[in-house]
């Protein structure tokens, strides 16, 4: 569940293989989960996340999210060397493990239905959110008509006018 999985470690960290992700392309929604992680906002939480990655030999990380997720990724990147040094000093990892993981490759992808991230024309999630909203409106229209009622539908999208 996002950064919380990195902090908690264990079975929360899984390798993304072709077989594990190939069926996700046509699915809308957050099929890989979504979570806000207070722990990752602290250095202690980022130390745990770094240790979990190093212990598994992971040197590539893909972060999909909005401003908070991508800011967290940038902080993690900026602190990576000092996190490793601190872990070696505390005995959390060996110097050899730190050397093997001396560089962390991070790819950040904007995923937000708000479509409000600077420098992007269309964020991952906006189109599928709009598609789902249209499906729901189509589905409840006949119910509203047959009951002679007005339905109010609340959707996310913040300042994204064609979604919200």
From TrEMBL:
<keyword id="KW-0963">Cytoplasm</keyword>
<dbReference type="GO" id="GO:0046872">
    <property type="term" value="F:metal ion binding"/>
</dbReference>
<dbReference type="InterPro" id="IPR000023">
    <property type="entry name" value="Phosphofructokinase_dom"/>
</dbReference>
<feature type="domain" description="Phosphofructokinase">
    <location>
        <begin position="1"/>
        <end position="164"/>
    </location>
</feature>
<dbReference type="GO" id="GO:0030388">
    <property type="term" value="P:fructose 1,6-bisphosphate metabolic process"/>
</dbReference>
<keyword id="KW-0460">Magnesium</keyword>
<dbReference type="Pfam" id="PF00365">
    <property type="entry name" value="PFK"/>
</dbReference>
<protein>
    <submittedName>
        <fullName>PFKAM protein</fullName>
    </submittedName>
</protein>
<keyword id="KW-0808">Transferase</keyword>
<keyword id="KW-0479">Metal-binding</keyword>
<dbReference type="GO" id="GO:0005945">
    <property type="term" value="C:6-phosphofructokinase complex"/>
</dbReference>
<dbReference type="GO" id="GO:0003872">
    <property type="term" value="F:6-phosphofructokinase activity"/>
</dbReference>
<dbReference type="InterPro" id="IPR035966">
    <property type="entry name" value="PKF_sf"/>
</dbReference>
<keyword id="KW-0324">Glycolysis</keyword>
<dbReference type="GO" id="GO:0048029">
    <property type="term" value="F:monosaccharide binding"/>
</dbReference>
<dbReference type="GO" id="GO:0006002">
    <property type="term" value="P:fructose 6-phosphate metabolic process"/>
</dbReference>
<keyword id="KW-0418">Kinase</keyword>
<dbReference type="GO" id="GO:0016208">
    <property type="term" value="F:AMP binding"/>
</dbReference>
<dbReference type="GO" id="GO:0016020">
    <property type="term" value="C:membrane"/>
</dbReference>
<dbReference type="GO" id="GO:0061621">
    <property type="term" value="P:canonical glycolysis"/>
</dbReference>
<dbReference type="GO" id="GO:0070095">
    <property type="term" value="F:fructose-6-phosphate binding"/>
</dbReference>
<dbReference type="GO" id="GO:0042802">
    <property type="term" value="F:identical protein binding"/>
</dbReference>
<dbReference type="InterPro" id="IPR022953">
    <property type="entry name" value="ATP_PFK"/>
</dbReference>
<dbReference type="GO" id="GO:0005524">
    <property type="term" value="F:ATP binding"/>
</dbReference>
<comment type="pathway">
    <text>Carbohydrate degradation; glycolysis; D-glyceraldehyde 3-phosphate and glycerone phosphate from D-glucose: step 3/4.</text>
</comment>
